[in-house]
Design goal:
- This protein is about 45% helix and about 20% strand.
- It contains 9 helices and 12 strands.
- Strand 2 and strand 3 (about 10) form a beta hairpin.
- About 25% of the residues are buried.
């Protein structure tokens, strides 16, 4: 959050313009508040932050500083870490992330590669089984995220890939899905 004179599209002082330019060059998304629109906020924030000038930039409710501090952080290559960009201190746990992923679609396949380009024989076989049974599914390429790749093995208590989920519940790997398809109850088991 940047407390500034004016708006990012129309800064009303050189320091505010410089702050906006720095943040845009570093591709850091931000919101702003025009302190010229509210004298109480303008004066109160100086006391609150113990910082007498504007602009002021905050990250997660904490004052980072003014334009000189931001310029120094950029020169040191530390702006993004100082602002904790991409490093949410309230980040969801891995289990919460995995729970969201397995529930991302009614039928969710965790595989090596993508359905159009499987990167292992078992993943290719799973895709073929699902497609030949007209089952719509979403997929996640576990090769793109090592944290998910390792974490899901523990989360599901299933050590290999691919893994197929229906409505957030583990169905199993390619052997189980193949068996269900041969028995003719795959669509029913997946709730399709």
């Amino acid at each position: 959050m940047v407390f500034m004179k004016g708006h990012p599209a129309e800064p009303r002082c050189g320091f505010s313009a410089k702050m906006v330019k720095f943040l845009q060059q570093e591709q850091i998304p931000f919101n702003s508040f025009d302190i010229l629109t509210d004298e109480e906020v303008r004066q109160g924030l100086k006391t609150y932050s113990n910082w007498p000038t504007y602009p002021q930039i905050y990250a997660r409710g904490k004052l980072i500083g003014g334009v000189d501090i931001v310029e120094e952080l950029i020169q040191d290559g530390e702006l993004k870490s100082a602002l904790a960009v991409g490093n949410d201190s309230q980040a969801e746990s891995l289990d919460e992330r995995l729970a969201k992923l397995v529930n991302q679609a009614p039928v969710m396949l965790f595989m090596k590669g993508h359905p159009s380009e499987p990167r292992c024989g078992f993943s290719a076989k799973m895709v073929k089984l699902l497609q030949s049974n007209n089952i719509q599914f979403d997929s996640f390429d576990i090769l793109t995220d090592e944290e998910v790749r390792q974490g899901l093995k523990t989360y599901s208590n299933w050590p290999t890939y691919p893994q197929l989920y229906a409505r957030g519940k583990l169905i199993g790997g390619v052997d189980i899905v193949d068996e269900m398809a041969q028995e003719g109850n795959l669509r029913e088991e997946l709730g399709c």
